[in-house]
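Escalated from tier 1: heme C holo job.
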Amino acid sequence: MPLRTTIIAASMFCVLLATAISAEEGPTPEQRAVTATENRQAVFKLLGVNMGPIVGMARGSVPFDAEVAERNARRIAMLSTMIPERFAAMDTRGFDVTTEALPIIWDNPDDFAEKAKALHDAAITFAELAATGEQATTLGGLRAFGGACGNCHDTYRVDDDD
Ligand code: HEC
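Tier 2 regenerated the structure:
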């Protein structure tokens, strides 16, 4: 091999080796805590994305669309099952993460999971109302549905404007 090629090959090998070593070391606990926090917040962001149009329909800022209401409610039901899972994935208490999750979540996993299940059931109930296609019937069920979000926030999220 010409010298130049040898040098290039050798330096590429070093890069590969360094990558392999760092992959083997894996993320630090601090990095894992940041990722765990971002992942659970991603679930909540998607809950918000799906709830937004439904709330808009109730306020009159979004035209009523029963199909969208039902579809989004079913998505929320599905996403709600990830809430307890993402908190069980890692207890991030004591790590330097930006979060609105209250520490008591990890002391009360059963109650926390119950509140997520209450959201699941409320979302299914709302989806069934939306399946009737009737505006008044559908939007009449929004208070109970949205209440399942607020009920958990009241206990387990830092108190802000909700
Ligand atoms: C079982 C408890 C629980 C339920 C049910 C729940 N939330 Fe939350 N929510 C939380 C907690 C805890 C946080 C703070 C997460 C964090 O910062 O680590 C949060 C944060 C959020 C955030 C902020 C996400 C971000 O970081 O940008 C939004 C938006 C949100 N929730 C919307 C909703 C909506 C909409 C519903 C109902 C469809 C809902 N949540 C139901 C517990 C819950």
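The chain has a mean pLDDT of 92.
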